[in-house]
Specification:
Strand content: under 5%
Distance between the termini: 40 Å
Structural class: mainly alpha
Shape: flat
Order of helices and strands: HHHH
Length: 85
């Protein structure tokens, strides 16, 4: 299992990489990705919307502790439709 320091270092490494990529991302938001039909901004939006899973996990724990059956995981299409609406 990773130590706290290793996890913090990994998060910082990702943050540094994203900081370095930010100018390219901002300048090329409408550029298509290498595969599929998405553009850079579509992928970035998707990542941002799904970035904080802590609240979802905490809610599942609360539901389980309260005796509620956790909801079945939603499909990616359902999640995307909700975010667009």
């Amino acid at each position: 299992m990773a130590t706290r320091d290793e996890i913090v270092a990994a998060i910082r490494s990702v943050d540094e990489r994203l900081d370095a990529l930010k100018p390219l991302i901002m300048a090329n938001g409408n550029a298509p990705l290498n595969e599929g039909t998405w553009r850079v901004r579509d992928a970035l939006s998707h990542l941002a919307a799904r970035a904080n899973g802590v609240d979802r996990v905490a809610q599942r724990v609360r539901d389980t502790q309260a005796g509620k059956m956790p909801a079945a995981p939603r499909s990616i299409d359902e999640i995307n439709a909700e975010q667009v609406a």
